[in-house]
Sequence to fold (512 residues):
Amino acid sequence: MKKRRPVLAVVDLGSNATRLQIAQVNAGGRTTVLAEDRAAVRLGEQVFRTGHLSAAAIARTALALERFAKLAQRAGAEQVRAVATSAVREASNRAALVRTVRNHAGLNLEVISGAEEARLVCLGVLQGAPPSERSLILDIGGGSTEIISARGEEPDASFSLQLGSVRLTEFFVGSDPVSRKEAKLIEEAIQDALAQVDPLLTGRYARVTGAAGTTGAVAQLARKLSGRDPISSLPVSYEQVRRVLLRLQGSTAKDRKKWGVDPQRNDIIYAGAAICEGVMRKLRIEELSVTSRGLRDGLMADLVRRVARPRGGHLHQESVVLDGLRAFGRRCGYREEHAEQVAQLSLSLFDQTREQHSLGEEERSLLHAAAMLHDVGSFVSYNRHHKHTYYLLYHADLPGFTDRERELIATIARYHRRSAPKDRHEEFQRLTPQERLVVRKLAALLRVADGLDRGHRRHVRSLRVKRRGKSLHIDVAAEQGSELEVWSARQKADLLEEISAGPVRIKLGEQG
Fold:
């Protein structure tokens, strides 16, 4: 019987518009796009000035996402991932939007960080690029602008700036055409934000790739005002972008309509063009090329890698994700060698006890992250550091992980020492019954792995796990004088005994 090819859907909820993509996953993880849709919900309306999402914007968004959910259902989508960006990140009432979307559309809306947004944009634009290729990406949204320097399809430096076409328009534009004073204020805001960008990027790239949306509209207008084919794929020069900005400054809404500017972008196009021109001037970029790909495409590629990759090719093993874990650990002053040792031992235990826990690659990645960061709470205080770890990871920016995955990572790490998970614990109560079982299984492995590096000496070289009757035997190959590590692991094997439904025997084998 022919295996059914999975259908997936993603929703990108930006400050200006929300976008849907539905695709079928073919052999080798390639996709065939079945449908795409867009709705200009203007979710960022007023939020950058008031800090609140308006009731009208929430209602428009819920209606659009309800329609998207029905389209995905009709197409037979097995999974739908919906994410929101800057407008929702900054809104004090974002929980109201998440709740409304869940109630009306049945979608779990995830609010992603600026770093995760940059990673997904990079993946969407550069998917399949060879590791030797260097690129610069510019993604101008309604509320934020992402500038990403990349190697292959992964970012090596990214900057999420509080610059966006909707944000700047709401703050500074009150007339049509834009006044000289308003244009000056926008220019000052852009230059102030661009001070955050690494000066080493200046002059490094001759060309920047614009990710859909605003940059596409600016490039199209540049070609049209130059008397060229507006839908050409050829790049436009900095001088052409500069001329667009000058023409827009003296234009009215009627002029812009005559030039073919999208009505849904008519009032915000000046601010978008100003950001584009400001970035190119600041970084001394000569040309702007535009791609139709962006965050939505990165979301789809990311989702495909979660569901379609074979063992050993999981997205959480990509360097950008592992580098993100290490970067967060370093910010918290963690002991990197101990973290790497506990992670290695945890994964060895996971791989050798698959028959006992029956978990997959997604869960393996959660254990890996929890093991890497289990001690970051010591940054606050060593006493009760497991609880401080939970708080830090719950609120961490970990590129590559969803909100729910991050909460599970935090909970697993919280139980690496002292008491095992209990139903009365508040953080454990938040989880579903299935998630609680996953946390218990992974925490059981992490506790033993942490015990095996009790002295932070990295004495344990390898483990061998065997099931003998009802007992689980763990033979430890280690350096001389590793009795403390084995004793500690035995003390922390209580949860593993419960999970494996039998005694756990840990003994010191080969010593060198």
